[in-house]
Each structure stands twice: as structure tokens, then as C-alpha cells.
From TrEMBL:
Coiled coil regions in record: none
Species of origin: Alginatibacterium sediminis
Location(s), subcellular: Cell membrane; Membrane
Source superkingdom: Bacteria
Protein's UniProt name: Probable membrane transporter protein
Family per record: Belongs to the 4-toluene sulfonate uptake permease (TSUP) (TC 2.A.102) family.
GO terms under cellular component: plasma membrane
Membrane topology: Multi-pass membrane protein
Keywords: Cell membrane, Membrane, Transmembrane, Transmembrane helix
Length: 254
């Protein structure tokens, strides 16, 4: 239980500090901390991340840092992609979902540990079709393996949209809310088909702890070097990604 509580705090901190990483951490907490069924864990992860990201976005909305036009251009295709990814999960085994999740974790770790320079372009010179396509692809990943995709959304908004990092993080949180909510709605059908049920109490208390962590993260973000945070977070993803992949493969042969 202590590990689960600490995990919930870190989930919120990650979203508040970096605008990403919450769902990458949520699924392992549910799988290994609470021993939930993988499909239930993915659905619960989407609900929890949506709630925490919504709370984390409020201070940014108050400061008027959310770029709503980009939220629509990235978020709506992302919602469609997430719904499609959740639909595809019906024909995807638990093992394959976990292995895909581990791969996403390792790719996210690479992005964190070897970040490329993100140029800030002119906010008016937008390649809209690229933003829409990227939103759709990230959405499919979200629905299939239960990740919000903030680590993909933030760079896309900076590179393709020309947003500043603070604007990209703020907009990313709102997009995560939209995509995670869309995926969760579809997963309700998936759960019904498999005769599985959510534990609303678990979702509520993890989300509540995570929300408090997100507000703390938003408050301390300007006071901590972001590069150092990304390094720590990246290595944590490497360790968890290798563990999940190894554990899944061992379970397959046992």
C-alpha cells in the first residue's frame, strides 16, 4: 500500500512538473502495486490520468497558458485515435499490450535521457496536417496501451506548432484529459465484453493523491532544473520498462 501511495504522488508530480509521464507510471502502480487485471489496469489508468491531468491543468488555464486552437487540432484527432486504439485492444493479448507498453516506456526514456533541442518557431506558421496526424497516432498508442502520451505531445507542439515549453506543457495536459477520457469511455465496452469491473474506490483515491502531487509539482516546477528531473525520470523509465518486459516474457514461458 505504501508503494502505491508513493507511486500516486510521483504520478501527480510528474504531470505537474513535466506535463507528461503520469500514465507511464500509473499502469505499473496498478499492475504491480494493486495486482489488477491488465485490461482493468489500463482502463483505470486512463480514468486516473484524466482526472489528475484535469486538476494539473487548472493553474495553467488560470495563467492563460493553454493554446486552445492547438488543443482542438491535436486533441480531437487524438480522441479519435484513442477510441480506435481501445477498440483494437479487443484483439490484442494482455502479453502483447504489456510488451508494447514496455517498448513505449523505453522510447520515452530515450527521449528523456537524450533530449533534442526543441526549436521555437513562429506560432502562426503551423503545419496543421502534421499536428492532426501526430495527434491521431499518439491517440492510438494511448488507447492501445493506456498511456496519455504527454512525452510525445509536448515535443510535437513545440516543434510543429512553435509553442513555448510552458504553453506546450499546459496544452498537453488538456489534450491528455480529452484523449484519456475518450479511451476510458471505449474501455467500458471492452470491460463489459470481458465481464470485468472497475474498482471506483481505487480510481478515486489514487486520483486524489495524484491531484495533490500534481499541484505540488506545478508549484515547485519553476524551482527545480528541468534537465535534472528529466534525467532522473528517464532512468526510472528504463528500469521499469526492462522489468515489465522481462516479467511479461517470463510469465509467457511459465
Amino acid at each position: 500500500m505504501l508503494v502505491t501511495v508513493l507511486g500516486a504522488i510521483v504520478i501527480g508530480l510528474s504531470l505537474g512538473l513535466l506535463g507528461s509521464g503520469g500514465s507511464i507510471l500509473t499502469l505499473p502502480v496498478l499492475l504491480y502495486g494493486l495486482k489488477l487485471d491488465p485490461t482493468v489496469a489500463i482502463a483505470s489508468s486512463l480514468a486516473i490520468v484524466a482526472l489528475i491531468a484535469l486538476a494539473a491543468s487548472l493553474p495553467y488555464i488560470w495563467r492563460k497558458q493553454v493554446q486552445w486552437s492547438y488543443v482542438l487540432r491535436f486533441g480531437i484527432p487524438g480522441m479519435l485515435g484513442t477510441y480506435l486504439g481501445a477498440w483494437l485492444s479487443i484483439w490484442t493479448s494482455d502479453l502483447l499490450q504489456l510488451l508494447l507498453f514496455a517498448l513505449v516506456m523505453l522510447l520515452a526514456a530515450k527521449a528523456m535521457l537524450r533530449p533534442k533541442a526543441l526549436p521555437t518557431g513562429n506560432i502562426e506558421q503551423v503545419k496543421t496536417w502534421k499536428i492532426i496526424l501526430d495527434g491521431l497516432l499518439v491517440g492510438i498508442i494511448t488507447g492501445l496501451v493506456g498511456v496519455g502520451g504527454g512525452f510525445l505531445i509536448v515535443p510535437a507542439l513545440v516543434v510543429l506548432g512553435g509553442l513555448s515549453m510552458s504553453q506546450a506543457i499546459a496544452s498537453s495536459l488538456v489534450i491528455i484529459v480529452l484523449k484519456s477520457s475518450s479511451g476510458f469511455i471505449k474501455y467500458l465496452d471492452v470491460l463489459a465484453q470481458q465481464n470485468l469491473q472497475l474498482d471506483s474506490a481505487v480510481i478515486a483515491w489514487i486520483a486524489l493523491i495524484g491531484i495533490m502531487g500534481s499541484w505540488l509539482g506545478t508549484w515547485i516546477a519553476p524551482r527545480i532544473p528541468q534537465a535534472r528531473l528529466q534525467q532522473v525520470f528517464g532512468w526510472m523509465l528504463v528500469i521499469m520498462g526492462i522489468y515489465i518486459a522481462t516479467d511479461s516474457l517470463l510469465a509467457m514461458f511459465n
